[in-house]
Amino acid sequence: MSGSRDALTNRSLSTPHALDTLRFDDRGLVPVVTQEARTGAVLMMAWANREALELTLETGFMHYWSRSRSALWKKGESSGNLQEVVSLHADCDADTVLAQVTMEGPACHTGEATCFGGLGAEDSAVTPGAGPARDHVLTELWNVLEARDRERPEGSYTTRLLTDENLRLKKLGEETVELVTALVRKDPRAPEEAADLLYHIMVALKGAGMSWGSVMEELERRRS
């Protein structure tokens, strides 16, 4: 019984064929709500047609459709603030897409972290137990890192780190200092710095040929 229920509620969009389940509007578009997978912060809302979503799945980076320009656009192509895809999900009516991503830099063209101004991760994070953004985000992020390690997509920040040991260790040190500084100053952005550090820790482990599962096993051992 539980197996059939799980199948019914699995709304992930991981293949082009899965896009057949979406209900595009009369313009061939669906709204896409984009969320930072590491923190749960809602970054932006945009529109996508099927081609944009297919490119997203194919490249591992978010693509959208500009209604004003009637053209496809890759997020961060000019600014460098790319959005690496963690997962795509349809809502219960199949007419809205939730995109979970990781990105460096601001999501908004104004230079703010999100298109919703001062909204931070602590305001937009989902409640405990409410889905992949909280329960499974680290596992999903590790899966993304494994995919990046296999595919090494050009232009990916993660690819740069995985191919350059000096860079990833340098960034690991920088992120550690930034978190410590934020904690000393009681900076409200400390959780964001902690999320950045976790990401760089995981990349460093992956680059060294180690697994996230071994970290979880060690934590379980210590708990016991």
Task: Explain how this protein is built.
This protein has 224 residues and is of the alpha+beta class. It folds into two domains: 125 residues, Roll (Ubiquitin-like (UB roll)), CATH 3.10.20.810; 89 residues, Helix Hairpins. 44% of the residues lie in helices and 17% in strands. It has nine helices and six strands. The strands form two sheets. Strands 2-1-6-5 form a four-stranded mixed beta sheet, with helices on both faces. It has a two-stranded antiparallel ribbon with strand order 3-4. A hairpin with a 5-residue loop joins strand 1 and strand 2. Helix 6 crosses helix 7, helix 6 crosses helix 8 and helix 7 runs antiparallel to helix 8. The chain is globular, with a radius of gyration of 18 Å. The protein starts with a helix and ends with a helix. The N terminus is likely disordered.
Distance between the termini: 33 Å
Described by strand count, sense and barrel closure, the largest sheet is: 4 strands, mixed
Q: What Rg, in angstroms, do the CA atoms define?
A: 18 Å
Return the CATH topology of the largest domain: Ubiquitin-like (UB roll)
The strands making up the biggest β-sheet line up spatially as 2-1-6-5
As a percent range, the share of helical residues equals 40-55%
Q: Quick recap of the structure?
A:
The chain is an alpha+beta fold and 224 residues long. It has helices spanning 2-9, 50-59, 121-124, 132-135, 137-151, 157-163, 165-184, 190-207, 212-223; strands spanning 29-36, 42-49, 63-66, 71-74, 83-90, 97-103. Helix 5 crosses helix 8 (190-207) and helix 7 runs antiparallel to helix 8 (190-207).
